[in-house]
Target: Outer membrane receptor for ferrienterochelin and colicins
Amino acid sequence: MLDFIYQQFYFMGKKYCLLSLIYCLLCSELFAQKVTISGTIRDAASNEALIGANVFDKVAQKGAVANQFGYYSYTTSTDSVDLFFSFIGYQTTRIQFKAMRDTLINVQLLADGLLDEFVVSAEQMDPIQEVTRMGTINVPIKQIKELPALMGEVDVFKVLQLLPGVQSGTEGASGLYVRGGGPDQNLILLDGVPIYNASHLFGFFSVFNADAINNVELIKGGFPSRYGGRLSSVIDVTMKEGNMKEFKGEGSIGLIASKLTLEGPIVKDRTSFILSARRTYLDILARPIVAAATSGNETVGYYFYDLNGKVNHIINDKNRLYLSVYSGDDKAYARYKNFYVNNDVRSDYEDEFGLKWGNFITALRWNNVINNRLFANYTFTYSRYHFDLFSEYQEKGTGPGVNESVFYAEQYFSGIRDWAAKADFEFIPNPDHYVRFGANMILHKFSPGVYASKSNQQNSNITLGSEELNSTEYAIYAEDDLNINPKLKANVGVHFSGFVTDGQHYTSLQPRLAARYLINETTSIKGSFVTMAQFIHLLTNAGLGLPTDLWVPATPQIGPQRSVQGALGIFKSLKGIELSAEAYYKTMDGLIEYRDGATYLNIDQDWQQKVAVGEGKSYGLELLAQKKLGKVSGWVGYTWSNTTRRFDEINFGEWFPYKYDRRHDVSIALTHDWKDNKDFSLVWVYGTGNAVSLPVHRYEGAESVRWGSTWRPEVQYYESRNNFRNRAYHRLDLSFSWWKDTRWGQRKWTLGIYNAYNRMNPFFMDLSYDRSGNRKIVQYSLFPVIPSFAYTFKF
Model:
């Protein structure tokens, strides 16, 4: 025990000594004879932070970028400055003055619906070839809302699936499989808090309500050192802060769900709020139909809801507080009640079963401007994911001299709870350096799966399954985005993390490097090398993102997942279009998968005995052409990839294709602002079919006797795992919207068609028999052509 405590202090001491050294070295820059201009860049109408807004000094030909909270810092040694403040979709603001001393400038930009592309071109914006990071894509919220949506329900994840290197898994599902990784290898953040299950409706929709979102960023390679804990991607979603100027609202009514968002000032220009709610009403619509068909004896339903809330308070120019909350649940249930009479005794009984799952997260953030070059963000969070599978039976008998009741209940539940704290610092000594460093700690409590039953018969209470596990995860990082010379720019950093569980202490040192070399004004070459570690696993039976998936920690028997990824690409801007080609190679080890025949329902067996540990590799080429401005915007993407995995105890220890390995993937997503009050959008996707396991031979097994007769079971022989491919997948979605301004706001109508030419795409394959008794492979499809309608409004 003393050795363990000593190790903890030893590692923590090394970490904080490293942070102190970095801080002291960097702070020496503060004493240089330079002038710093700093402040925030926000929306003039709502005071919302403009994440990634640009500051460009035409005199020095250098600039800065606003961070996640709209804060920027620009240091110069010139006497005069000519600053341009710009952001896509907003009018550019120009400020000229003599820079004699440190100056605070808070800028509010006006939205411009008629923004001309030339205004935000040239040196005023950071084009794709200028930035260091690769494998990073921002999708404007406006584009997300305009693209066609399944059943009219706008979904952030459905749009991310259209990007190169991102696979959807199965038809209609919202799961993300990035560069050969699994769904557990995505770090999904909502206001900096991890979400463990981001799916609604058994995976067909995500938990993110687009009306409550300010920014969405996908990182699939070249990970900055400030991110850790997952292998394949980071999806960083930031909620709106709330309008500080005036009360606003928007909502929509669709085929399966409705939503409403309200925002406004609590104290004008100082405190604001935003509240957004969404709920499906399939259960409400189906209730009278089911009741009529079953004489009121049966109720079947399903619904999900989301609730987002945020309060934003400005203490002063240097301090700001945020409190954000998200709660969302799914519930599917069936109830049946009836009665019977036996020997003058009436027995009323009710049977109910179902499943429910959901997330709850909350975050408290404190932004602190320590000085005009050093910015701090302190975050304290709590998150909970739970899954419950339940069944209850009640019966009550009444009659002459009889008053008896029977009660029996079963429940299977699992989940994970986190308490976390982190401190992040941004230090900008001059325009050639952007330094970030910080530390975080997470306390995990895992419930890998517990079965419980109770009954009033003989007072029976049974509990089976894995015990709760407590684990501690911590990390420390430092990175610098530096300009080496006008052509060469690099992001260099290191991420150190550790995990303590059940007496085992795992550590991981992860160097990160990304570099950009500018060939000419419009073209650059980029490369990156990253190592990643993940200390938690997801046990999954299927690829639908079902709530039966169980989160478990690394243990002394099952180690963490690790990966190494290298990437190289060329990037170019051409007449308002961003072009990129990226090649990557990634290796993974420590992957786990259920052994053949094992499931989460084997409650009498510890999960560690059910899994095999293996490795994987993925490599590919991703091409993207994206246009963010103009009447026609969107992107065309293509991915060629190869993803395989290997487990000693599966497939005879040989490599096999990953289930969601997709050799070719094409996506086209375009929106056209047809007129001032009309737009049209389309999405077309094509993908090689998923890999499936099908038998190649069958034969009769050993003879046995069943119910007095001789019987020979059929034995199926599988040559290898995932040895066949489904048919290719392709689909066309269309959407048309028109809107009208009213005296109270705006109203909008949207008509959409999902799978416009009614392609019967494979959902899964199975073996069956034809009329002659011969075996055949049968394809089952899920979605035919589906029209949709949505009415939205703003006030």
Summary: The radius of gyration is 29 Å. Helices lie at 2-27, 141-146, 156-160, 282-293. The chain is about 5% helix and 60% strand.
